[in-house]
What we know:
- Helices cover 10% and strands 52% of the residues.
- The protein has 383 residues and is mostly beta strands.
- It has one domain: Porin, CATH 2.40.160.
- Strands 2-3-4-5-6-7-8-9-10-11-12-13-14-15-16-17 form a 16-stranded antiparallel beta barrel.
- Mean pLDDT is 92; it is low at 1-31.
Amino acid sequence: MSRNLKRAFRRSILAIPLALTVSHPTAAQETRPAEKKPSIYDEIWKYTRWYENEENPIIQNFVLSGRFQLDYANVDADQGDHDEWNIRRFRFGAKARLFQKLTVHGEVELNPQEKDPVYVRLTDMYVEWAESDLVNATVGKHSAPFTMDGATSSKELLAIDRSNLTNNLWFTQEYFPGVSLAGERGAWAYHAGLYSSGSMNREFGEFDGSAFVLAVVGYDFAKQLGVQDAVLALNYLHQGADPDNTFTRSFGNVASLNFKLKADRFGLRTDLAAGDGHMGQSDVYGFMAMPFYDVGEGFQIVGRYTFVRSDEVNGVRLGSYENQVVSGRGDEYDELYLGLNYYFYAHRLKLQTGVQFADMEDRANDGGAYSGVGWTTGLRVSW
């Protein structure tokens, strides 16, 4: 039986007792929409929300937060093969909203595949003060969002992993101790932050190195274009050169101009980015284009092309799983990705699979060349 026929059948059954008890329904009764019944996923995910009471002047809610991401990866390259099952990310924590304006969030990353250490690091540990839509101030260890994929949570990635452009220019530790301001007014949005770059440890770092400044400004052209989203954003980061900066990558300046479009079922994400290397790191630049299409019934097709190049040899890294075959670096990377997603419960529960055709050139000829096909399938759960 088709979905429409099932829906019509249910409505017909519900209409029988109504017709028996109400002989002359009012206009309001005739037009009142049927209440949506909670899905099985709604019933499961509600257990992550431990407390909610907007009338409580002290604590308004207390919820669990986290993600579980499981991968199977297979790489077949001219330089060798690799396959593995991998718990890519497992994070667990809690978030509370207090006094109507404060949010306190703490989360840790765990690795149950390893006996030592199971505890990997503290990811989030911050306090956020939301004065208004325009002013949100955050203090503590939190995300530094720049580049297209770097500004996208791993919970909400459309491809199964971030592009290699982001992998090279973004700071892949993602969470840094610092202070930031963010907000929106109309179609404009901004983020400005000062973060520590010093020696990395599993918590807040040693604060013994330099710092980096991040500025992001974006404008949404959705109203002018008549679409859901059309956000053009400029990201700029500046960092001092310091050998103790192990939280970050060796770039003095990083700039990214990225665009996010969503129009009905079709969407596109792009990124044009470059980094000014120092302390032995070459300058790096490249671009990424990722079109996607929502087929319907939970399915989504995703494509991506990525190009990354360094001015000097050995300036470009390979991405996840590819670097398990070739650990060296090259100077020019090309990738074509084709993926399929199935959403059970939006981004909170989904399956993703994707094939990558990638090549790395290595002018130095010292072990960074790569040419291969990678296939990764993953389960993504978040709460």
